[in-house]
């Protein structure tokens, strides 16, 4: 069955069973987030989830307010997917404040994008800076839509950064382009888009002597995904195994989708580094990083129910604050290449991502993705 869904931005989330009443929030609202909102399979944690990798890093980061980016974006062109609402829309409004010259709002439909464009234009008028605002259509549930979108981007006179922020967190299993919808949108199509945008960004790098950036939205939940879901399938069968309804737990599927994202950002960055070293003139570096906006309240949770949303609203970071991390990722320098970013800082990967087994798994994932991408646009992976 093909999925019927809308795209919104990704975000980091905590997890655990809802066993703590509202009245016990005084110790730490963020511990509450971590322990309450998401179920974690019993084989993924010890007696207490605070012993899980990344738990302390998540909580320490969540209580911080991400700093306002201090950068003047005059002359730059920045593209944002998932820009019609949530963090994507707030990131676009922030780009206006930072005097970005051209802002490309990428939405699933033009109709959804038109309202977002009005919001950004209103922010422009209020702030006195009037950027060029371009509205483009992209459906990450369609590989052909991704390919067509990338072709349109070739006509852009300049592209400094692509903030790949669109994503889904469906509560029910469905297939899109033959794969489970979360995996298709958050992983396969996102990296297909990144692959196809690299030549576009390189042309701007050559023409304007810049170092362009691809910022891909990630999440702290990559720490808590079960790496066995990626390591145990046979070679060439990871994505198909993840798309088997008998082997899929949708309660933790969003968690799992974020682990291959982090693995692939690291692997993708290494490939781009190697190409830039071999051919620095023809294939200049495109910085690629993985941005975790923190636990934010956006419409990503719209399918999770009223009670769930009531909890989230009490504990989450604002969308405006989370958007700062996206803009930081899209405007940061080479020091963020291949890195995991949170609270506008480089943070450690999960132990699995840092491991040799993680590197091996990333290569296996890339081999599977490459076969898909070559079927969409022959030769595209060779251009990297």
UniProtKB/TrEMBL annotation:
Organism: Vermiconidia calcicola
Keywords in alphabetical order: Oxidoreductase
Polar residues: compositionally biased ranges: 1-14
GO molecular function: oxidoreductase activity
Any matching Pfam family: adh_short
Cross-referenced InterPro entries: NAD(P)-bd_dom_sf, SDR_fam
Signal peptide: none
Key word Nucleotide-binding present: no
Name of protein: Uncharacterized protein
Entry annotated with the keyword Acyltransferase: no
Stretches for region Disordered: 1-21
């Amino acid at each position: 069955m093909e999925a019927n869904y809308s795209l919104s931005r990704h975000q980091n989330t905590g997890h655990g069973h809802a066993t703590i009443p509202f009245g016990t929030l005084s110790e730490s609202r963020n511990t509450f987030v971590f322990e309450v909102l998401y179920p974690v399979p019993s084989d993924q944690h010890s007696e207490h989830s605070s012993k899980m990798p990344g738990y302390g890093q998540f909580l320490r980061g969540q209580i911080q307010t991400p700093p306002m980016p201090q950068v003047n974006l005059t002359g730059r062109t920045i593209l944002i997917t998932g820009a019609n609402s949530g963090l994507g829309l707030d990131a676009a409004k922030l780009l206006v404040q930072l005097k970005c010259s051209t802002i490309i709002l990428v939405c699933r439909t033009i109709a959804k994008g038109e309202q977002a464009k009005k919001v950004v234009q209103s922010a422009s008028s209020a702030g006195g800076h009037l950027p060029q605002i371009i509205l483009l259509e992209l459906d990450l549930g369609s590989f052909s839509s991704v390919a067509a979108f990338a072709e349109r981007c070739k006509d852009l006179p300049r592209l400094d950064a692509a903030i790949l922020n669109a994503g889904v967190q469906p509560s029910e299993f469905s297939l899109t382009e033959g794969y489970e919808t979360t995996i298709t949108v958050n992983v396969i199509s996102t990296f297909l888009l990144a692959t196809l945008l690299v030549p576009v960004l390189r042309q701007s790098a050559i023409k304007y002597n810049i170092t362009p950036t691809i910022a891909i939205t990630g999440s702290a939940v990559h720490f808590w995904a079960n790496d066995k879901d990626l390591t145990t399938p046979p070679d060439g069968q990871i994505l198909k195994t993840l798309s088997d309804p008998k082997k899929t737990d949708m309660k933790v599927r969003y968690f799992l989708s974020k682990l291959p994202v982090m693995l692939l950002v690291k692997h993708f960055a290494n490939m781009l580094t190697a190409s830039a070293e071999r051919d620095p003139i023809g294939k200049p570096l495109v910085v690629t990083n993985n941005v975790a906006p923190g636990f934010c309240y956006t419409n990503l949770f719209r399918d999770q129910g009223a009670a769930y949303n009531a909890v989230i609203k009490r504990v989450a970071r604002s969308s405006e604050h989370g958007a700062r991390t996206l803009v930081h990722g899209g405007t940061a320098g080479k020091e963020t290449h291949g890195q995991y970013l949170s609270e506008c800082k480089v943070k450690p990967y999960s132990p699995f991502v840092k491991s040799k087994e993680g590197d091996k798994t990333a290569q296996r994932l890339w081999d599977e993705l490459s076969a898909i991408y070559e079927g969409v646009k022959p030769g595209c992976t060779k251009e990297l």
